[in-house]
Every structure is written in C-alpha cells, then in structure tokens.
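Researcher: Before we compare anything, I want clean individual predictions. No alignment, no superposition, just each chain on its own. First chain goes here; please echo the sequence and then give the structure tokens.
Model: Echoing the first chain and its structure:
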Amino acid sequence: MKKMNRFDVFIYLLIVANIIAMVLESHEFIKREIGVFFYYFELISILIFTLEYFYRVYLSYIENRWKGVKSYVFSFFGVIDLISIVPFYIKQFVLIDGRFFRILRLFRLSRIFKLGRDSKSLKLFIKALAAVQNELKFTLFLSLLSILFSASAIYFLENEAQPEIFSSITASLWWATVSLATVGYGDVVPVTAWGKVFAGIISLIGIGIVAIPTGIISASFVEEIHHFRKKR
C-alpha cells in the first residue's frame, strides 16, 4: 500500500477535527461559549480544503492533462471534495432562506468520506456497486412500484373507515413506505379486517424487497474481494 505523505495525514486529521467540531457545535452551551472559535476554525479549514481541491485538480492535469482533470472532478472523491466546500461559500455569498443554511451544514459530514481516499476496501465497495448498478436500478423501480401499489390498495381498503388518515393515495404513501421498509412506526395503522390482512402481506413482501438489494450488493462485494485477492 502506498505510504501516505505528511500532507495527506494533515488533511485526514483536519477532517476528523472538523467532524468533532461539528458535533460539539450542536450543543448550545458549548456554542455560546466558543462559537467564534468554531466559525474561524471552519473558515480556515474551508480555505485549506479549497486549496487541496485545486491542488488535486492541478496534479490531475499534470498527470493526464484535461482528461485527468475530468477524471478527478467527476470521480466519487472529486465530487465529495467539492460538496464538502461549496455549501460554505453558498452560505456566505448567496441570500437564501436561513433554514437552508442548516441543511447545507449537513454536507460537512461528507468530509469524512475523504478519509477513505486511500482505502482499498472502500474502492472495492464502490467498484462492487458500479458492477451491479443495473440490478440496483431495477430493484429501485420494483420498490417504487410496490410502494405505489400498496398506497393505492390501502387507500381503497381504508378510506371509508379512516377518511381523515387515508384521504388519498398520496396521503397513503407514508404508510406504504414504512410498511414495505418493515419499520412500522405505528402512527398510521389499518383498522378494517381486509386492511389488516393486506398490511400483513405487505410486511412480509417488504422483508424480501429490503433483502434483494442487500444480497446483490453483498454478493458483488464478495466477488470483488475474491478478484482482488486472486490478482495479488
């Protein structure tokens, strides 16, 4: 495995420090005491991450000209590098709803993915996902179709008994989603006999729908590990 240089170690430590700072900043009493420190720490970190991003673009250009730049910018980690810095600049220079700022702050978590830049395991996992993307797309389509069918069926079964809850197929989508995902929050439940029977069937089907993509990804990951070890 290629030995990490000091710059990479520094970047990884800075990423970890940023994640810790984000967690600490979520506590109001800590934020009141040293909120200014958090702001300047993030500002300095963003400047460093920005320089790192353009430095990697430069290295990609030196290595393979514009083809290398395109390869890096649109790669998984290239996108992560960009996402981890862009929200800060949007927050500073664009006048948008303050609630949107808080959503953008979640993108700070994307910096943790940068830690896996040299991880062979993560690269194998990404390769495994790419190898079964068509199967995963079909599974997603099947899931959406099942949710729509379930929402439509429960609407016709429960609308008369619970018109305020199952007021439309759209309103029934929440129940269908949590039921097929086998989460079952219990905030919306069928009360009719046929509604309960249908809910039981859907819950069993949901187990299979959740298991299909899990099995596909697991099998592909194991296969990639096998190929990797065989090459070594």
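Researcher: Okay. Second chain, same rules.
Model: Second chain and its structure:
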Amino acid sequence: MWFFRSPSIIYGEESVTYLNDIPQRRIVIVTDGNIVKAGLVDIVRKELPEDSDVLVIDTVPVEPTISYVLSIKNKISGFSPDLIVGLGGGSCMDSAKAAFATYERPDMDMHDITPLVHLDLRKKSRLILIPTTSGTGSECSWASVISDDDHGRKNEFASPEIIADFAILDPAMVSSLPESVRKSTAIDALTHAIEARSSTWKNPYSDIFADKAVELIASNLFEALDNSKNTEAVANVHIGASMAGLAFSNSQITLAHSLGHSLGAHFNIPHGISVGIFLPHVIRFNYSEAKKEYAEINRKFPSSIRKRYLYLTVESFLEVLKMPVTISDLKISKKEYDEKMESMVSLALESTGTVLNPRDAGRPELEKLLKEIE
C-alpha cells in the first residue's frame, strides 16, 4: 500500500494574493535577512489580512542547526500563532517545518520527527510555505534538513505530518534571483527528478512528476537565465522544481544526494552544487540497474542538449551552465579532501539515498565515486 502526499498548491502570477483570504490572524513568518532586504517579506505582509498580528523571525542561517530551531521555539510559543509561514529557500522552509513541529509539540525531541512516530500536529496552527528559489522542492516535501550543531551531519527529519498545508508558487518571488542561485537550485531540482525516477521506491505517480519536472526545467532554464523578465519561462522552471519536489518526496533520492549531503556537511558547499557534481557519476554507476528509467527521462531534455546516454546529457548540461565538476572547481584542496574521505563515506552510508539506490553501494563503491570528482 502506497500513499501520494502533496500540499494544496497555489501557483501562477499573483498567487501570493491567496493570503488575502486566509482565516488565520496570528502569523509567524520564518525567513532570513536577505529575503527581508529583497523586499519579499514586505510583499507577503501586504497580502495578509489587515487585522493580522505578524511576528517576523528573519534570522535563519544558511545551514540551520538543531540549536537554532530550538532557539526560536520559545519566541514562537510566546506569540501563539495560528499560522506559520516559511518564506525563502530550503533553509527557511526547512526551519519553518521544524519550528512548526516543535511549536505544536514542545515536549518532543526533534529526532522523533520520523515516519514511524505519530506526532499529532495541527492542534494549534497551520503551515504555509512560499519558496523564493526554484530548486529545493521543500515546499512540497515532508522532510526537513537540519544540521547538527557542529555541522558534521545533516539530519533528514521526515514525517508526512510536517508537509505544508499550502504551497504558494508565485514567479514574482523568484524573478530577481541571482544567476548563480538560479543555476544551482535548478540543478538541485533536476537531481531530485532524476533520482526520483530511479529510486527503488519509484512509482507511477512520482514518475509522471519527475518526467514533467525535467521537461519544464530543461526547456525553460536557459531562457529564464537570459531574460528574468520572461515570466512564463521563470514560472515554468519554478513549477518544474516543485514537481521535482513532489516526485522525490513520494519516491526518495539516491546516491547523488547521499554523497552531496556528505560533501556539503564536510566542506560547507551549497546543496545544489554538492549534489549536482556527483549526478553524472551516479547515473553512470547506476546505468546497469536503471537503464530503462534513465532512457525515458533522457528523452525529456531538449534535442539540442540531449546525448545518447543520460549521464552524457547531464555532463553537457553542467558544462553549458559552467557548473563545478571537480573539487578544484570548489576550491577544496586534494589533501584535505583525502583526509576527510573516510568520514564522508561513513556519513553517506547512513543516508536513505544509499539504501534506496537502484544499485547496491558499499564503502568501496562510495569511495570510488568520491574520488571521481578529484
């Protein structure tokens, strides 16, 4: 027996105006300082009902930790919101999901946020997520990636109960993204879709969303990069990224995420870059076990980019985007990389992506894949 889980999704131009009609009046917005500076918090506040009381928490760090989430719990509890809004990229939305859970259940240890524990949430509030990047898919997933306090591990807290009640996909929220962010988050989304297509938990629902996600992103990304005022192209990439989020949250990720999370945890590499650098290598490694799935998703890339095999297509795509492909591109010394090899392998072995990869991978295989980007 399977379940397909999704928030209610409001999308398209001016979809943020949906906030006019919400019944809640005590609202916490979880975001970061850059989102405030970009004026996006002001846009959201303007659309909230006039008689709302609003608390803005704009301190979300690039890599939120367990201590950070717990540090804002008392502030949220003291305000007693009936709605929590996560506004931003993956860090902001993941922080909002974790804060929502801890506000609802202050007695709960965050490590209890697992699919195996009934959390009994939504006694006090609801959750709305508004992404300001096109890539993480966090607005549609039921996972929250929160680091240990020493940043040595990225915890994948997951429960169907922390999925948002509503996700708002407004292209205005991403129209001013820097090119570097637009590129890295798009690669993150493509990785979600490709890995969802090949996970051992893949299913007909996740396949459909993964295929359409690749089609929308790959066919519109270059136009969105060339002309951010092309609302249709920007919106298509944004919707595609959300579809990729739906795909992987209902089927799961594989080795590129296992290795990418480990690399990111050890060297503080942005998530989209850290998973993207491994993607062609993981596809090549998995080809014998996922040949049919990879062939099907390869056909969703435009013919101008598509190569005979998916890993070659992805390599070409990364090359055109001028994305990093080696540790030297990431300014990581080979000596330090090799010194942390064993620790990176150990962390990757613990990931669900390794368990659900279509081809078995143990310590020797993971080490080989890590060495392929040296």
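Researcher: What stands out in the second chain?
Model: Residues 256 and 348 are 10 Å apart (CA to CA). Additionally, The chain has a mean pLDDT of 95.
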